[in-house]
């Protein structure tokens, strides 16, 4: 039932969202972001490296024990699971991975946190885009995190540290290595409660230029509710809805706004 509603929502989104080319966008900041990041069609060499890694995963029949935290997977159930299945259903797709890369490349954050490493595909997009930044990625399942660590070594992503932990426990124990963060990518948990806990906790570590990126904002009714609550938070100055992904900014001195852009 939710999938049918999602198709309808996507249809409405396509009809009402503003063009990423900048037409009809009044905010200078959003206009610049749309033209420089969302509308950037350049093919970077790093994309080919990541595509090759993804292909290796998709061909890998190795089975590993998997423990689900949060909402788990709609498609994959039980344990063990094939690496190829995890790559197919749980890893960030190229369209949004390349967007993540362009965002990080444009803003060049130094202190980056990722919630939900999975096999490390999204992590590579981030790490390659900001080679001078430090990436701290958190994954709940040790066997999955182990593969991601191997990948970081093989791909030369020395700026990444992957920690195995449940998100809530890690934050409650104050185990993040940064007192302040510049970029946070939320791609795990996928429940309203977990997403809001992560958001509200990480609010204590932001600066005016911090960027939050939320994946799968329409993954479920609960995720949609969480996204709406995040956008309405008084500390959020700008939120951008890209249908599957949401961007959040905290700039001071600008009127609060919510923008829906085609992507």
Rg calc: 18 Å
Going by helix content, strand content and strand pairing, the class is alpha/beta
What's the rounded overall pLDDT mean?
Answer: 91
Point out poorly predicted stretches: 71-76
The total of beta strands comes to 10
Instruction: Please describe the biggest sheet, giving its number of strands, its sense, and whether it closes into a barrel.
Output: 8 strands, mixed
How far the N terminus sits from the C terminus, by CA atoms, comes to 25 Å
Helix fraction bin: 40-55%
Q: What sequence of helices (H) and strands (E) makes up the elements?
A: HHHEEHHEHEHEHEHEHEEE
Overall geometry: globular
Relative strand content: 15-25%
Strand order of the largest sheet: 5-4-3-6-7-9-8-10
Number of helices: 10
Architecture blueprint of SSEs:
Blueprint: H1 2-16, H2 28-38, H3 45-58, E1 63-64, E2 81-82, H4 83-89, H5 94-107, E3 111-115, H6 121-129, E4 134-139, H7 142-154, E5 160-164, H8 167-172, E6 183-186, H9 192-202, E7 211-215, H10 221-232, E8 238-241, E9 245-249, E10 257-260
Parallel strand pairs: 3-4, 3-6, 4-5, 6-7, 8-10
Antiparallel strand pairs: 1-2, 7-9, 8-9
Helix pairs in contact: 3-4, 3-6, 5-6, 9-10
What are the key terms here?
10 helices, globular
Question: Please, could you describe this protein's structure?
Answer:
The chain is an alpha/beta fold. It is 43% helix and 16% strand. The protein is built from 10 helices and 10 strands. The protein has helices at residues 2-16, 28-38, 45-58, 83-89, 94-107, 121-129, 142-154, 167-172, 192-202, 221-232; strands at 63-64, 81-82, 111-115, 134-139, 160-164, 183-186, 211-215, 238-241, 245-249, 257-260. An 8-stranded mixed beta sheet has the order 5-4-3-6-7-9-8-10, with helices on both faces. A two-stranded antiparallel sheet has the order 1-2. Helix 7 links the parallel strand 4 (134-139) and strand 5 (160-164). Helix 3 (45-58) packs antiparallel against helix 6 (121-129), helix 5 (94-107) runs parallel beside helix 6 (121-129) and helix 9 (192-202) runs parallel beside helix 10 (221-232). The protein is globular, with a radius of gyration of 18 Å. The two termini are 25 Å apart. The relative contact order is 0.14. Residues 71-76 have low confidence and may be disordered.
């Amino acid at each position: 039932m939710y999938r049918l509603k999602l198709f309808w929502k996507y249809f409405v989104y396509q009809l009402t969202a503003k063009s990423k080319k900048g037409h009809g966008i009044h905010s200078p900041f959003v206009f610049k972001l749309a033209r420089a990041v969302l509308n950037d069609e350049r093919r970077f060499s790093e994309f080919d490296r990541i595509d090759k890694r993804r292909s290796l995963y998709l061909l890998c029949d190795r089975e590993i024990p998997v423990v689900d935290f949060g909402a788990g997977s709609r498609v994959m159930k039980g344990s063990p699971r094939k690496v190829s299945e995890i790559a197919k259903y749980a890893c960030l797709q190229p369209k949004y991975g390349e967007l993540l890369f362009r965002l990080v490349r444009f803003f060049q954050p130094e202190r980056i946190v990722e919630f939900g490493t999975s096999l490390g595909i999204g992590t590579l997009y981030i790490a390659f885009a900001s080679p001078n930044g430090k990436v701290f990625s958190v994954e709940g399942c040790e066997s999955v995190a182990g593969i991601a660590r191997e990948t970081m070594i093989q791909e030369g992503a020395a700026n990444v540290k992957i920690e195995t932990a449940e998100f809530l426990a890690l934050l409650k124990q104050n185990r993040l290595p940064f007192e302040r963060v510049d970029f946070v990518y939320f791609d795990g948990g996928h429940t309203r409660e977990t997403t809001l806990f992560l958001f509200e906790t990480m609010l204590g570590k932001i600066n005016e230029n911090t960027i939050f990126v939320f994946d799968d904002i329409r993954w479920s009714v609960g995720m949609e509710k969480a996204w709406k609550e995040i956008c309405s938070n008084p500390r959020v100055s700008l939120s951008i809805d890209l249908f599957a992904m949401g961007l959040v900014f905290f700039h001071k001195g600008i009127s609060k706004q919510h923008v829906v852009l085609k992507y």
